[in-house]
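Can't paste images in this forum, so I'm doing it all in text. The chain is below; anyone willing to post the predicted structure tokens underneath?
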Amino acid sequence: MKKFLISFICVILYSNLYSQREEVQIIVPVEDNFELEVKTIISIDSLDTLRFIFKYTLISSPSSGQPVRLFEISPPFGKDGDTSIAPNHWSTLGTPRRSSWNSNGKRYHLTPGDTLSGFVFITKELPDISYWYAEGSDTIYTPEIRGGPPYVGEEKWVRDSLFKIYYNKTPFGPGKYGYTVGPGPLPPGWWNFDSTMYFVSDSGFYHLIDKTNKCFEQNWLLERAKNHLISMYERALRHYQNNRVEQAQRVLKQVMSYLERERGNLVFDEAFYILYYRTKFVREHLAWPAKK
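Text version of the structure:
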């Protein structure tokens, strides 16, 4: 009789444990089921001419199969004092140094066929080639069902599987990513002894040539414009290397005028923002006399 009571108690305990376990059902898509276009407008902050205002508009394709719940500009190169602003009902994640936004509820997601603007990033960093990253709202599904079977080692298996199949889908996480314009570091150079002045040498010209080639690779400017810009940067570099700093600055000013003239024709907005403001920065921070 005593042995029977012990067995009966064990059955009751196991039944309670069995009923309290939650079955985790995981449905992981091959890729997030949405198509997203990101439009960027950049302007100078009227209250601080050293700061740039990055404004992003998200356009979800009508053929998208799910809403978008998270939008981020990566990698974050933010500095102290940067500001992130999101549309109503979207919260800013992390600190202002991270340009990332997340919706607060399903009804505030960007639905297929809709457009959402109001994502703003304000910083002193220059426009640069960056990534956008987004996640769909129902990318992973884990309903909590009471009474499911108690799987041994289930939590570790789920965690390992998610990292292998889901979280590592992109360099940033499980969603989708593409190229856009975001804040980035200064052209290569150096600060003076008390960090009040920044100087650029011939490495700044090579930096501009590299950015021109990378903008062309993203189809942000046509080949005719790429070749013309590189030839002008090379001409300015030769002036600088021969200690004709003023002549180099004049050529860079001509580059800026060319970018303004060809914007929307041979040079698209993304390349304009990156090349115009970086050319302006190099022109205004050239070391004198020339330093190689």
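The chain is about 35% helix and 25% strand. Residues 1-24, 141-153 have pLDDT under 50 and may be disordered.
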